[in-house]
Structure formats: C-alpha cells, structure tokens
Amino acid sequence: MSGPAPIAVTIGEPAGVGPEIAAKAWERLGARLPFFVIGDPAHLSGLGVRPVPIARPADAAHAALTGLPVLNHPFPAPATPGRPEPANAAAVIEAIARGVELVTRGEAAALTTLPIHKKALKDGAGFRFPGHTEYLAHLAGVDRVVMMLACPELRVVPTTIHIPLAEVPAALTAELLRDTIRITEASLRRDFGVESPRIAVAGLNPHAGEGGAMGREEIELIAPVIAALRAEGLGLTGPHSADTMFHAAARAGYDAAVAMYHDQALIPIKTIDFAGGVNVTLGLPFIRTSPDHGTAFDIAGTGRADPTSFIAALQMAREMAEARRAA
Fold it and tell me: Dihedrals φ, ψ of 117, to 5°?
C-alpha cells in the first residue's frame, strides 16, 4: 500500500495508559490513518488487539490492516500498570530519540508522543530535562520552542509555562514574548495553512492592566512588542483582557491566542474541549503532537483510558504534515 509516510508514535511510559490508548486508537482508526508504535511488543499484548511487528516504517500501512503496527524497541523489564519500572527508563528515552531520527529522515511524516513520567526517567536514567518538549528541542538542536494547545475551536499558546504564578512577571521578557509570537505566526502559516495569521495577545493583569491601575506590564512590555511586530507586518491585536478573549464571538476574530502564563491559556481550552485537546510543539524542524494528558497511573490497566486526545493528536499531526507538503 502506497501513500504518505506514517506517523511515528513513541510508547512513553509503558506502565501508564499509553499502550492502552494506542491499542484503542488502532481499533477506531485501523488503516485509515496509519501510525506505528516504537516500543516493546510485549507491552502492547493483552490489550484486545494484535501487535503486528514491522521491520521499517514503510510497512506500517499494510500492517495496520490486521493489527497495531509495532517497530520493535526492546525494553529490559515488563510493564506493570501503575508502577513504573526504573530499569525501563533508558529505553523510554531511547525510543524518543529513535522517533526523532525517523521523522528527521523522512521515514515518518510526524512524531506523536505518548506520555512520559519525568520522575521515573530521572530516578531510573538520570533524565536531566524538565520534560518531553525540552528533550525534543535538545535532539533537534533548537534553542527555543513554543507549546500550543489546540482543538477545533481554539489554538492557544502560553508564553511562560510550568512556573509558579509569582515568577511569571520576572520571566515574561520582551524577547520571550517576541519569540513566542514569531514562532506561533510562522507555524500558523507552515503547519496550519493560514495565509494571513491573526493573533490575539492577552494582557498579564486583570482587564489588561486597566490603563496602569492594575499593573504596568501591558504598557511597558506587551504593547510595545505588539506594536513593533505589527510594524513588521504581523497581524496582531491586543493586549486584550483575558476574561473576554475566549467566548465564541471573540474566538472568531483570531487564528490563535497568545497568553501570558500557563493557566490563562489552559483553562479556556480545557473548558471548551477537555478530552480532545492536543499539545503541539512549535519551532521544531519536524511535527510533534501529543495528547493533552499524563500517564494516568491511577487508571492504567483498568480499561478506562480515553483515547480521544491521542486520536486528535494523530489527526492533527496528519493535517499538519499535509499542510507542510502543500507549502
């Protein structure tokens, strides 16, 4: 079977819900959206689907006709649901590196990553990166990447991410905001096929500072960055009061929103589409998506894991790959 390259899926933490949602995704998608899992076939057995070993990514589309395609990546220990095994930590990390290599070589159209458990990787293999995204940036040789959360109704980008709220004002610099907006604008063109991106930028303070009465970041930092980038031709508006940016009529006026901190971005998208949101890493030389949830050790092995976000991540990866080809 010929066609576009399949999507590479890294298994993530095999003691989490990753193997289950991969199996459920194949049950729903079959060969309609070919993907293959980089992992140990033993971790994907007993899930109600047949793991089909493949020798190379190009075999995934044919294998998907009869089962879940798996590119063998041996792990040293079994996977016990809910209980990460330190001996498997290095193999988790190596599977990610292998996925990056395959997508960089063009053998896979995109990379979709199943959730890892950072503490398990640190304890078992001395993992020194804050998370998945930073490791991918390291492998790609990229200095700065941007996290986008996306669903059909909203694309939103937090400028600062996993830091305490008290540290946000100091972390929010003009350089960081400029880079975040530029990377977002470039990705909307290249990865989402938006010819003239419209980006709405939030303020930091309530009511976007209310003319300085509730803070001066909007006046002294955010508005000057917006003005400078608008002078370069970028389609920006703001700074907007975040409490009026995310209702349906407001969302119709932009292609993506840039928020100032984690919760300002994630609360609206998780309210709009809790199960179907997708985490997209912008600024990498390849496409990377992931489900917007973690390892969920508390339900691993119970059969209750919901594959909706993972399926959405696969579908978005395919759409982004098609947009890149068209561009």
Answer: -120, 105
Answer yes or no: do 92 and 48 share one domain.
yes
Query: What residue numbers does the annotated binding site for a divalent metal cation cover?
Result: 162, 207, 262
d(CA 5, CA 118): 30
Strand duo 154-158 + 146-151: pairing? antiparallel
Q: Residue positions in the annotated binding site?
A: 132-133, 162, 207, 262, 270, 279, 288
pLDDT at 131: 86
Q: Are residues 262 and 205 in the same domain?
A: yes
Closest C-alpha to 258, from 209, 218, 201: 201
Residue 259 inside a domain? The answer is: yes
Residues in binding site for substrate: 132-133, 270, 279, 288
Tokens coding 319 = 């759409």
Mean of pLDDT values over 160-173: 94
Instruction: Read off the pLDDT of residues 211-245 as tens digits, 9 standing for 90 and up.
Output: 999 999 999 999 999 999 999 999 999 999 999 99
235, 194 Cβ separation under 8 angstroms: no
Mean per-residue pLDDT, 190-202: 97
Instruction: Examine the domain organization and report whether 65 and 198 are in the same domain.
Output: no
Q: Are residues 18 and 137 in the same domain?
A: yes
Domain count, the chain: 2
Q: Which range of residues forms the domain containing residue 296?
A: 1-142+284-327
Residue 3 has a pLDDT of: 65
Question: Phi and psi at residue 83, in whole multiples of 5°?
Answer: -135, 90
State residue 327's pLDDT score.
Answer: 78
**pTM for this one?**
0.94
* Residues 6 and 126 placed together within one structural domain of the fold: yes
Q: How confident is the model over 4-51, as pLDDT tens digits?
A: 899 999 999 999 999 999 999 999 999 999 999 999 999 999 999 999
Residue 116 and residue 87 share a domain: yes
CATH code for the domain in which residue 223 is found: 3.40.718.10
